[in-house]
Amino acid sequence: MAEQSSTQGQLALLRSRVRRGTPKPVAVAAPELPIARVAVDLPLAHLDRPFDYLVTEPMHQQVAPGCRVKVRFAGRDVDGFVLDRVADTEHPGRLSPLRRVVSAEPVLTPEVAAVARLVADRYAGSLADVLRLAVPPRHARVEAEDSKPTQARLDVPLEHLMGRWSAEVGGAAMVARLADRQGPRAVWQALPGADWEGQLAAAAAATLRSGRGSILCVPSSRDATRLGAAVTALLGGDAHIVLTADLGPASRYRAFLAASRGRAQIVVGTRAAAFAPVRRLGLVAVWDDGDDLHAEPRAPYPHAREVLLLRAFQEQTAALIGGHGRSVEGQALVESGWAVSLAPPRSRLRESAPQIHVAGESDRELERDSSVGTARMPRRVFEVVRDALVTGPVLVHVPRYGYQPALACSRCRQPARCVRCIGPLGRPRGGAAPSCRWCGAVVEGWSCQHCRGVELRAPVVGSLRTAEEWGRAFPQTTVVSSGGDHVVDEVPDKPAVVVATPGAEPHADSGYAAAVLLDTWLTSGLPGLRASEEAMRRWVNIGALVRSAGEGGRVVAVGDPADPVLQALVRWDPVGLATRELVGRESARLTPAARLATVTGPADSVAEVMAALDLPRQAEVLGPVEIGDGRARIVVRTGRERGAGLSRALQHLQAARSARKLPPVRVQVDPADLG
DNA sequence: TCAATCCGTATC
DNA sequence: ATACGGATTGAC
Questions:
Q1: How far apart are CA A437 and CA A675, in angstroms?
Q2: Which residue has the higher pLDDT, A34 or A672?
Q3: This prediction's pTM
Q4: Which CATH entry fits the domain spanning A158-348: 3.40.50.720, 3.40.50.300, 3.30.1330.60, 3.40.50.11500?
Q5: Does strand B come within 7 Å of the CB of A501?
Q6: What tens digit of pLDDT does each residue of A649-674 get?
Q7: Element (H, E) at A306
Q8: How far apart are CA A540 and CA A358, in angstroms?
Q9: 3-state secondary structure A95-119
Q10: Which bases along strand B come within 7 Å of a protein CB atom?
């Protein structure tokens, strides 16, 4: 047991040193830049700053900016990233040596570290939280694999790439500028039925011609797979990687390393890909930015579009925000002059979109027609579906059930809004007087802003039209059902009724012959401020899966013909709708015209927050609203130009609370939904 | 007078 | 979070 005795000997030596106050043996510092600035992985808001550590001589070769280390912090070992190596420290006390270099792989590039800092500041969160989203966990075996250099195909003629963007006014010019190392910024409305995946691939290919990489963010991994295939078709399989959260630890880290080692210059992926360490980034793109899958559900809840915009700013890249619809945020970027609007001419949109009909509820002539064997199907729907089934599949869109709808005007069905802050009205449990879900104001003597109606009602969730019902209405027809945990990706180009819930719509190779939108008021009457925008986004996405009007493609929407969202859909005018919505948000002081944040927590903590918060001038606080379980929420808002001040105030609030060990409160800046 | 405990502060 | 220091309290 020679080893054990030697260990005991060392312990005895240490003990005697402590007794006699002899300093511990001083580590020999690295010959150059002996100080590492380390971002420590701590959950405490008030410790969100770099700490300096000594790089010891044996670590000298391995410690580079971006590598993972272990450090001693307040008596325990914690993980960290080296942000930088420097010659001097500001710290007046003695520095601890780095405890261990976990890996010399520089996984946190200076660019990503900088954008993570911006994201943390924008969302009133901590760098550690953002880095947990940005850098995937290490996988040692994968890290040991060496990646062979690869060659992307660069011989695709520029004319071909420009040709893919010929439908949009200014599209080809944008591609040319990408290839010319410039940084165009556009908010793009795609042509329905066109190959948007191929267009994004072409934009990335043009950027690659200028020696620069791209990040292409899509909402779901289904979309990522399709977009990845489009990039492969154009450039071969070597140029890009697909980075999605559902890959599993090894594949995810492998894909991440392919980007950080410069082996793949194009990253296709879901929201976490917005942080990918692409070398010489030249283009950031996000598809369908209104989809709430782009909003990260973990603190500090950043949105992929905003992360990419911060990268575009930080790394001076081109930016492309695209979709069939247009988000109000996208429209705000256009109207501020930061980006141009890129869209096909109206005539082109009209040709390529399907023809849209609105079938009113009064149109339910088949309601009592038992010979058809179905209930509550307007005649128009029946006729369109019957005719379309001769030529191809028909998509039937059923809004998801199970949410709590906001109160609406019983006459015109428009969602009822608070007169003070335009929040949605709800009826608290127990049947008390209706009140605002945001500011808590109790509503008395309500009257509808649209039609002057005075009666409120909770919209009745329509009867679930099941696949079986449709099967009975159209006997001898295949019925496919997609939704929930049974999502179908693709349907054959044959007559079939395809019943799908939002987000689970299968693709049809030659397009659907028709689509039916059921219970549209459930979608456009969703609670929250995004209802109209979100309804439009879902509907144009469905419309884009349907054949063009010229090929006989039809969409029948069951709803109120006076619904302004349905009217915009009939005109295929998401930009017009977004423009009007933006005006509304400006007058109501809502995102993106204003910067909003919510603070949620135990009711007494929220009360403390209201007293302690050092808000920028002209900021206002709505609430608090009791949200049950002893918890409460406030909404804080300020003008866009003071947004940074609001975020800073909230960050300081969190730092102060964490330093005083007060109960945590949740801060969300620009939340997707105000509840 | 000394130790046990509480509170506040720094953490490199 | 810990760890540490200074103040505070309590028992002899």
A1: 7
A2: A34
A3: 0.88
A4: 3.40.50.300
A5: no
A6: 999 999 999 998 889 999 999 998 77
A7: helix A304-315
A8: 14
A9: CCECCEEEECCCCCCHHHHHHHHHH
A10: 9-12
